[in-house]
Amino acid sequence: MRHQQLLDAVTDGVQRVEDLAQALGISPSTVRRGLTELEQAGKVVRTHGGAVPAITGTELSWTQKSLRNAQPKRQIAAFAAGLVRDDDVVLLDAGSTTTFIAERLAGRSGPTVVTTGLGPMTALHDAEGIELIVVGGRVRRRRGSMVGDYARGVLDRITADIAFIGADGYVPGRGVNCPGPELAAVKELQMRSARRTVVVADSSKVGRTEFAHWAVVPGPHELVTDDGLPEDARGALDADPGCIPHVVPATGSPGAAGAADRPQERGTPWN
């Protein structure tokens, strides 16, 4: 049994031994052994009949994440939404920045939005001009994302014009850093299911490698980030031939809207 799958299930709210065994297709005794080992590693706290996540975990909920660097994320979202045409099929990953993109798209008429995230789903629920398709699957409540075989089965049957992918970390030439293998698998499939891939990540995420799992970006892609990038991150982006960076102002200063509409071209000076 993979301990990460068990930990993901506990984090998502499946916390009784019997329910965990049914959800993962393993025996209760295997679940108990796994929970004991996760408790020894400081990942869960055992309870009568099950376990709960340890409060020391590093993965933030999507609502917590929305409060971090909110202004740069909104600037990134404004630029990203401007890339969408009215007849596009759009894949929106789960996450705080993609939720801000959904809020921008809510007033549009014509696009079809396919999402794996509870945040984008909520933002577009009442958007009459948007055809909204929710992928479905097992919900990772803390992350607000849909994962698992059902989600992958739906994404296998979709071809989108553009996919916006959120990131806990992004490394040029390496990919998107993720807190779990199921999240990485869904992100990879979303990218493979789109003609155009756009990673949306504020500058604090570029170069971050906090977690052990990676979603490999399958080919040329774009990155929308803000102008708070340190010099080494800018150099790494310039050195990656597979990435086209778009850099927007981190704050809505005078003239920022116009600047956000202009992509940062490779080989030109950074602002």
TrEMBL record:
Keyword Cytoplasm: no
Protein name (database record): DeoR/GlpR family DNA-binding transcription regulator
Cleavable signal peptide: none
Region: Disordered, residue numbers: 249-271
A molecular function (GO) term: DNA binding
Compositional bias (Low complexity): 249-260
Keywords linked to the UniProt accession: DNA-binding, Transcription, Transcription regulation
Domain HTH deoR-type: 1-53
InterPro entries assigned: Carb_Metab_HTH_regulators (IPR050313), DeoR-like_C (IPR014036), DeoR_HTH (IPR001034), NagB/RpiA_transferase-like (IPR037171), WH-like_DNA-bd_sf (IPR036388), WH_DNA-bd_sf (IPR036390)
Alphabetical list of SUPFAM superfamilies matching this protein: NagB/RpiA/CoA transferase-like, Winged helix' DNA-binding domain
Record-linked PANTHER family: AGA OPERON TRANSCRIPTIONAL REPRESSOR-RELATED (PTHR30363:SF44), HTH-TYPE TRANSCRIPTIONAL REGULATOR SRLR-RELATED (PTHR30363)
Provenance organism: Nocardiopsis mangrovi
Any single Pfam family the record assigns to this protein: DeoRC
